[in-house]
Amino acid sequence: MSDRHFGLPAVVSAILVVLIGLTACGGGAVPTVAPATAVPVVQLDPTATLPNPTAAPVEEGTTIPIPVPASMTPPSPTSAPADTPTPKPTDTPVPVPTATPRPVSAPTATSPPPSFDGTYILIVNQPSGETYTGKTINFKIGERDAAESTVWEQGGVDELNLTASSAAQGGGKQVLVITLASRSGLSRRGGILAAPLLQAPPLAPHVLVGTASVDGTLVPEGSVVSAWIDGVQVPGSEAPIEASPTALAGGSGSVGQTLETIGENLVRVWKFDPETQAWTFYDPRALFGSFNSIKELSAGQFYYVVTKEGQTAALNGQARTLFKGWNPVVW
Q1: What is the pTM of this model?
Q2: What ranges in 111-168 are assigned the alpha helix state H?
Q3: 3-state percent breakdown (helix, strand, coil) of the chain, nearest 5
Q4: Rounded to an integer, what distance in angstroms lies between the CA atom of residue 219 and that of residue 214?
Q5: In the chain, what are the domain boundaries?
């Protein structure tokens, strides 16, 4: 093993010598190659001790101190400001055209008369020997003076709601009166008594209907309303407060249909009964539908038809000429 290692360099050296010589001769004649000299082979002493290789000294690394950062408290995280959303423009709604409602024709049926709670009907007659035209009528609710008043009118029919204070005690001269409830042959509501029996019909009375209240409260049923002129109670002008009246079935309606040829020119109709000396009436206004005392127009009977203006109208199948005011008509 050792001989192989040391013989190989010698052979290599000999080959190199030959190559060098050839190069030195150039391109001329081929030089005579000298016989190769045998290269002595160096015999290694097997007993020789090979020196141990010296280990290269190992440099000790210098420890480089690494600086340790001082402990620091991490700062509290700051919340990032929230982005304020930019408002988006709102689309303007497109107006939707509204359909125009078509007018609905109102029914032509006659509305029922309104109902009344705690009402009175007061008949103010002009007695024989008295003249009431143009005089003021004052009223009482029981013994209390009412705040309202009106002027007496022949054949007038008006609505008048009476009010009084609990402290308003009235005076005046009391006279003997006959209440509506005690009049022979007449109902408590709708009976109209004229003056004492006379040869000629007396003037038609002034009729008043409405409510009566004291301190803002309607008086109870049965309370009495009375009329006074010149400090004296008018004879027969006392009426009780009654509950809501009911419309006269077939009365006012049938009369209105019979007189529809007169139309809105009609003010009212009056009728005097010589036997009872009582007046009854018909007023076309819905307010008085429950108070009308003429229930029908009978053939051969005598009526007073009151109109606003003169006109010609067919009444009971006959053409009648009517003048402004009171018109005597035989039906």
Answers
A1: 0.56
A2: none
A3: 10, 30, 60
A4: 6
A5: 1-44, 119-330
